[in-house]
Write a structure and sequence with these properties.
globular, disordered N terminus, 4-stranded mixed β-sheet, 5-stranded mixed β-sheet, alpha/beta, single chain
């Protein structure tokens, strides 16, 4: 609105000047006329889940992002305006719902998006290709694999989110147990804990049990050297998602039936808030969470025991489970060129080093290493060795993270494995028919 008013004012001023010149019979060419040109401030509009941090704020993650944005503003001579999601403004709409609407209506330039939203908007052709950015040369393959759709890189994060099993190593040592490598190992550990009076060996919530499924479902797909061909077979219907998922769901069902996971309680638990207190009180030896939950002064950062974060067991050994969010650009962004320049700064190795050192997270750049806390070293080694499975991949026509989470919840509510697999088959059939 301010820009429109300014433009109208400028136009009116020009008209008044022209009239004055006409009335006076014109101005001689050699007159000493000083013309003041208005320079319009360059702005990039960012839509994200939180506002810019206040000076002195304790939110380290936001502060680190704000610093990298400040680097871009200084280098490029522009301003990044934060447009913020708040629940009270949007009432029943989630952040993802609002982001979808805003991108579809080209309301902003730059967005921080979740994996399923990136996939949806990528399929709709609403996200710009970031492949030509200078920073892309330094990205880890896991980032490119997850967010490249039909040859276009449509999202790049400032950190790679990795999930692992958080284990109380002291409790494992007490019962002379090795940390589990395979699904059979984990089942045996749970048996020993249960027989020694541990009521619930694995503390779980209604969000993250899918990680156990992903590790078993896709270990071979991402670790076997034939990833592109297998995904193409899934997208064409030659192979079924349910065939990949069935072993993991059968495994979860067995754990529930044996009392190693309390399904009824897990369904009511929010992430960390539910199962966290029992884990910290050493009543349960195993939970699952994302990398940053193990950092100092966070959810599990200061336990009274030897915390280790390991990969989820699979037939190929422990696997990190990775989801890739991303900063994305609206294909019809009003300030497209400036937005691309901002991304190149905040995703440069210089900015990512600052971000990574501040937040102690995994960088998307292969050139930036994290100095992680000792508890995270096992998980970090898996990332460095490319021993991971992706829980989000825009190349898969059936969205993975959100759909699998919902189907795991059906299992927690009492659905049998066949019913869960039928839902995967339905989703695949829907994708093959173009969603009709």
């Amino acid at each position: 609105m301010k820009g429109s008013i300014r433009n109208i004012f400028t136009a009116c001023l020009a008209a008044v000047t022209a009239l004055a010149m006409t009335a006076c019979g014109g101005i001689e060419p050699d007159s000493n006329l000083i013309v003041e040109e208005e320079t319009e401030e360059k702005v990039v509009n960012l839509f994200g889940p939180m506002e810019k941090s206040n000076p002195g704020a304790e939110n380290i993650s936001r502060t680190a992002f704000d610093i990298t944005v400040g680097m871009a503003e200084e280098q490029l001579g522009l301003t990044v305006e934060y447009r913020t999601y708040t629940a009270e403004n949007y009432q029943e709409k989630t952040y993802d719902d609002v982001a979808l609407d805003r991108v579809r209506n080209s309301m902003d330039d730059l967005y921080l998006l979740n994996p399923d939203t990136i996939q949806t908007l990528g399929e709709e052709g609403r996200l710009a290709d970031l492949s030509e950015l200078d920073c892309v040369d330094n990205l880890r393959e896991v980032v490119k694999t997850a967010n490249t759709f039909e040859g276009k890189l449509i999202g790049i994060p400032q950190e790679v989110v990795a999930y692992g099993l958080f284990v109380n190593k002291d409790m494992f040592d007490e019962y002379h147990l090795e940390l589990p490598q395979t699904p059979e190992d984990l089942m045996e550990c749970c048996r020993v804990f249960k027989e020694n009076g541990i009521e619930t060996p694995i503390g779980a919530n209604r969000w993250w049990l899918e990680n156990i499924v992903f590790a078993q479902a896709y270990a071979e797909l991402y670790g076997g050297g034939n990833t592109e061909a297998e995904i193409e077979a899934l997208n064409s219907g030659e192979k079924k998602y349910s065939d990949y998922m069935r072993p993991g769901f059968e495994y979860l069902k067995e754990m529930i039936d044996k009392g190693y996971i309390d399904a009824e309680t897990a369904y009511t638990y929010e992430a960390i808030e539910g199962e966290g207190p029992d884990f910290l009180a050493q009543k349960t030896p195993i939970v699952m969470a994302y990398w940053s939950a193990a950092n100092s002064e966070t959810a599990y950062g200061t336990p009274d025991f030897n915390l280790q974060v390991i990969g989820f067991p699979s037939d190929l050994g422990p696997m990190a489970v990775v989801t890739i969010t991303g900063y994305c650009v609206c294909v019809d962004a009003e300030h497209l060129e400036d937005t691309m320049d901002v991304l190149d700064v905040i995703l440069s190795d210089e900015a990512l080093l600052l971000y990574t050192e501040t937040n102690k997270v995994i960088s998307p750049s292969k050139n930036v290493e994290v100095e992680c806390v000792p508890a995270l070293r096992p998980l970090n080694e898996l990332i460095e060795e490319d021993k991971y499975v992706l829980a989000s991949n825009v190349n898969m026509k059936v969205e993975q993270w959100g759909n699998t989470c919902l189907i795991v919840r059906e299992l927690l509510e009492g659905a049998d494995v066949d019913e869960c697999m039928a839902e995967f088959d339905r989703l695949q059939e829907e994708s093959l028919s173009g969603g009709q």
